[in-house]
Specification:
globular; about 15% strand; 5-stranded mixed β-sheet
């Protein structure tokens, strides 16, 4: 009897020790943007503050501006193998391994920020999480970023306006639409946009309004098309290695979800301001700024439905289902 009790006690002690060790572990959060300037970094700090308020035993360390030494796209490998716990990750960076994530930047599917937020908790969001889990990550937050075009050469309006330009759009399926419009494309992460514009590798780019400002792209481009109708909208959430998510207790997972919800609202507020901040930065730099008109937007969406959409649907049954589900949310 005593032996049995000792064994039970030892097992309970070991379980408690394991739980305590997981709780005390410092969780690394990696990303590519400036600390305390870019909204993605600031929202991550809101998340961390909220989690540690609810459970002081969970510790984090944020590594901004690639300071952990992991390239933006390579963060996915580190998350999948468990060497990195968390990252702020533009989902289109994962399409080399999981082409289904192109849905998070598919032109013509997300009308605006309010529409993006209505996606949260829907069958679309659940399917997207299912795809994420199958690829070794868990989507923690629901952060979407509106963006626009900027060019060194001339104004960008409808599809005909980009003919002959060397462009970047952050996603191969999106870039299929640009190629159909007559542009050539360069596939690079946002950290390489500035030097690529500077050297002439790029003549134009699409990216988030947040990135246009935080990476000072207004210094290398003279024409901006932003606001009015959002053609470029990308999900750039806080994600977690599925291995490490599964190590959290149900209570800790609940705390992460509560903290993520708070960070979602904070980030949404920042993104509502981001487009105007981009406009202000470009005007101050002496650039020409215009909005994408409804007619121009409709031309782009019509082109996307002939190019990007069918190409995406053909990737896999999951891709086809995601495109169907995202259209169901109005």
């Amino acid at each position: 009897m005593k032996t049995t009790l000792r064994k039970v006690g030892a097992a309970l002690a070991l379980a408690a020790l394991s739980a305590g060790a997981a709780q005390a572990q410092e969780l690394k959060i990696s990303h590519q943007w400036k600390a305390n300037v870019d909204g993605r970094d600031r929202a991550a700090r809101v998340f961390v503050e909220e989690v540690t308020k609810l459970d002081p035993g969970i510790k984090f360390r944020i590594y901004p501006a690639q300071s952990l030494g992991i390239k933006p796209v390579a963060q996915l490998d580190a998350l999948q193998n468990g060497t990195l716990e968390m990252a702020i990750f533009p989902m289109s960076y994962a399409v080399g391994k999981a082409p289904e994530f192109s849905i998070t930047i598919m032109p013509g599917t997300i009308a605006n920020l309010d529409h993006a937020m209505r996606m949260r908790g829907t069958p679309f969001a659940k399917k997207l999480q299912e795809v994420a889990h199958a690829n070794g990550i868990h989507i923690v937050s629901w952060w979407w970023t509106p963006g626009g075009f900027a060019s060194k050469e001339r104004e960008i309006s409808g599809p005909a306006s980009v003919a002959g330009m060397k462009m970047r759009a952050a996603d191969p399926t999106f870039e299929t639409m640009l190629k159909a419009a007559g542009a050539s494309v360069v596939s690079i992460p946002s950290t390489e946009i500035y030097p690529s514009l500077q050297s002439g590798v790029l003549s134009a780019t699409l990216t988030s309004a947040e990135t246009f400002v935080s990476m000072r792209l207004y210094e290398q481009t003279r024409f901006a098309t932003v606001g009015g109708n959002d053609l470029w909208m990308l999900m750039q959430p806080l994600v977690m290695s599925k291995q490490h998510w599964d190590k959290l207790t149900p209570k800790q997972q609940q705390i992460f979800e509560q903290a993520a919800a708070k960070s979602d609202e904070f980030f949404l507020g920042l993104q509502r301001e981001a487009t105007q901040k981009m406009v202000d930065a470009y005007v101050k730099a002496g650039a020409k700024v215009r909005q994408l008109s409804k007619g121009e937007f409709d031309e782009w969406v019509a082109l996307a439905k002939k190019t990007s959409w069918p190409e995406f649907e053909s990737k896999s049954p999951a891709a086809k289902e995601l495109l169907t589900l995202i259209q169901q949310v109005k």
